[in-house]
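Board notes, transcribed. Complex of a protein with S-adenosylmethionine.
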Amino acid sequence: MKLKELESILQDCEVFAEPKIQYEQYPTTAHLAARMLYTADTVYDDIEDKAVGDFGSGCGILSIAANILGASYSVGFDIDQDAIAIAQENSDNFETDIDFVLTDLSLDTGVLDRYKGSLDTIVMNPPFGTKNKGVDMVLLKKAIELANHAVYSLHKTSTRDHIMKKAKEWGVTCEVVAEMKFDVPMMYKFHKKKSVDIAVDFLRFEKSDV
Ligand SMILES: C[S@@+](CC[C@H](N)C(=O)[O-])C[C@H]1O[C@@H](n2cnc3c(N)ncnc32)[C@H](O)[C@@H]1O
């Protein structure tokens, strides 16, 4: 499948009906989601025939893209039942086969234990930690612990040095795959502008095979 074709298909993904700021619910655009998953698939071979998890799956666009690109298994995790309901509806409409799991990934609930050793790749557009400080790093660390091989994540470019340092500490490689612009439309009451572009890094973490 061509990149443009994937992007065009993903345009039909419904987004949060009533986004919740406490969970930093900002949907990834079809443009970004297609590029993230297409690159993970075609450049790194981390999607097709791989079991793919999606941390903070929201309305499911990253899981849906993984599924369309031939993931052998897809599962999304999110804290919000309303988001999961939309993701499930999207998945039904796209006729994709994805499990969605309701869980707070920042807590040790034991839910992830059942996925230990079974997810090759984890993709995520996590909350950036502006409302819930540090949650981005908590989710990233958990994803790296859980994934068998690679983690793809979006983070504010301003946090790059900190993340690189942490990756070293955690014993994984961290590569800036692309610098992107995350378009935040006017979604919440406190937003004053029609839309704002945030500079984000699309990062790839790889664990050494032991
Ligand atoms: C920036 S949105 C991205 C949503 C979706 N992945 C996408 O790309 O459109 C972040 C998502 O993380 C979820 N989230 C926030 N805190 C969470 C937590 N502690 N555990 C699990 N999910 C969380 C939110 O509900 C939201 O769906």
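The mean pLDDT is 94. The CA atoms of residues 5 and 34 lie 9 Å apart.
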